[in-house]
């Protein structure tokens, strides 16, 4: 019903009313017509996130799935930045780190394709983006960075960062119109889960700042990684650890053996 930006907007409105406001500071709008498919619908962009894979690669054993969260200190993020030859965002470097470590942990064949889908808030990408201020519904895309397991493992973090940066800028107003048209033509197909992982950045949502009148939340984010039967979903969540140190949490969902390998790969990448 709602994406991260819409949920944060709803939570803010809820807390404002709880603290005595007669109406929310940002008025809700419908404007669903902006996101409707064209007539006739026609796909104008490449949407490889919706490709259907015929030959499944290794998937996690759902009978041994475990959940674990990994805490990134500012020093950890600095360590990752030293592994890339150029400036990049914290989201880019953590996403690349997750993708590389997860792919190595799964021990895939070098020729097998892997996908990293980054959830992108599309509201600012529309020419009339002011019309979407107050829109509570879904308005995002998840373009897929695609390579093979072999190339990703061999070329390292900088290579992964470049792939991620390139697909993020693909999300434009035309791209969103093309997605809407694809949903009509292909009857609301789902993204491929084979060899895929999806990541969402919750740092800008600032759920910890939601205040119903008794102060900020201790934690604001998801409880665990994965999304229903799909274990490849994760989130970047701001968090303060037991020592009062600010950082970022990455909740992961993998089989028990793959989780051990993931933790080992992450420690090696961070130089721990």
From TrEMBL:
Superkingdom of this protein's organism: Eukaryota
* Keywords of this entry: Transferase
- Where, if anywhere, are coiled coils annotated? none
Q: Which InterPro entries match?
A: CAT-like_dom_sf, Plant_acyltransferase
Q: Which GO terms describe its molecular function?
A: transferase activity
Q: Which Pfam families match?
A: Transferase (PF02458)
Query: What Gene3D superfamilies does the database record attribute to this sequence?
Result: Chloramphenicol acetyltransferase-like domain
Q: Which family does it belong to?
A: Belongs to the plant acyltransferase family.
Protein name per its UniProtKB record: Benzyl alcohol O-benzoyltransferase-like protein
For this protein's source organism, the top of the classification is: Eukaryota, Viridiplantae, Streptophyta, Embryophyta, Tracheophyta
